Amino acid sequence: MSSRLKKVEPKKTFELNIEASPVPYYAQVRDALRKRILDRSLVPHQKMPSESQMIEMFGVSRITIRRALHELENEGLIFGVHGKGTFVSKPKAFQDLTHLQSFGEAMQPHGYETFSKVISLKELRPSDQVLEKLAVAKNEKVTEIKRVRYLNREPMSVETSYFPEAIGRRLIKEDLSSKDIFLILENDFGIVLGNAELVVGAHLADDLQARLLGVESGSPMLHIERLTSAKNGQAVNFEHLYHRGDSFRYKVRVERSSSKDKK
């Protein structure tokens, strides 16, 4: 790992003028550092200034600096290496499976920048699997949308999504690079989403996925099949999501049934 870590000298861009504010000093320092990480003024594996350097830069106490760094570490934005210092983390997406959210909705609370690159948009005859999942007639076409999803300007996943023709024809007219499809469906199309069924498995990146995500062919990936339905039970979207194995985590909480519940 040490060969990938980069040193950084103190820069004027880290200076922060603490002003009278209801926002605590540690939060101001945390937010200033987070901004520079997210806008890539500090890049992954780059070494952060030392505590002493940041005390001088920001004009605050060591306790304040340590609390700011502790919160950034909890957010997964930085990590410490014993005897070497603190470094910028590679962005990692984290999503709670117990909530039906789009990629952008899940990342926004963490302050991450997200956008998409549309690879292709087309209408086609559905495969047997897509036909079954979307419950469309055999003579109907579906709309296929392929995108690469980015987190802090790093490619995170390749997504292939299928929509019934009526929905798909409207979607292809939208700005799919900056707008989340879930939000378009609900806010613009008036479709109230209800639930989703997910199947999670392992996958090895093929040549195209590897090129789009900047990884080696055969790299481990997380493969998710997701079928999303509206409140009325109508299927509106079936998709294959391929996430980089080194950059994506899902979280789910499960409850154990009591012996009484099992009877």
Short description:
By secondary structure, the protein is α+β, with helices and mostly antiparallel strands.
Description:
By secondary structure, the protein is of the alpha+beta class. The protein folds into two domains: 2-88, Winged helix-like DNA-binding domain superfamily/Winged helix DNA-binding domain (Arc Repressor Mutant, subunit A); 93-251, Chorismate lyase-like (Chorismate lyase). Helices cover 28% and strands 31% of the residues. The protein has helices at residues 25-38, 51-58, 62-74, 103-107, 128-134, 165-171, 181-188, 207-213, 259-262; strands at residues 78-81, 85-88, 93-96, 114-124, 142-151, 154-164, 193-204, 220-230, 235-244, 248-251. β5 and β6 (154-164) form a beta hairpin. It is elongated.
Fill in the keyword field for this structure.
alpha+beta; Arc Repressor Mutant, subunit A; 263 residues
Tally of structural domains: 2
Could you give the count of β-strands? 10
Strand content: 25-35%
Tally of helical runs: 9
**CATH level 1 class label of the largest domain:** Alpha Beta
What is the makeup of the main sheet? Answer: 6 strands, antiparallel
Order of SSEs, N→C? HHHEEEHEHEEHHEHEEEH
Distance between the termini: 53 Å
Q: Choose one word for the global shape.
A: elongated
Give me the Rg, rounded: 22 Å
Unreliable stretches (pLDDT < 50, length at least 5) are 7-13
CATH architecture call of the largest domain:
3-Layer(aba) Sandwich
CATH topology of the largest domain: Chorismate lyase
How are the secondary structure elements laid out?
Layout: H1 25-38, H2 51-58, H3 62-74, E1 78-81, E2 85-88, E3 93-96, H4 103-107, E4 114-124, H5 128-134, E5 142-151, E6 154-164, H6 165-171, H7 181-188, E7 193-204, H8 207-213, E8 220-230, E9 235-244, E10 248-251, H9 259-262
Parallel strand pairs: 3-10
Antiparallel strand pairs: 1-2, 4-5, 5-6, 6-9, 7-8, 8-9
Helix pairs in contact: 1-3
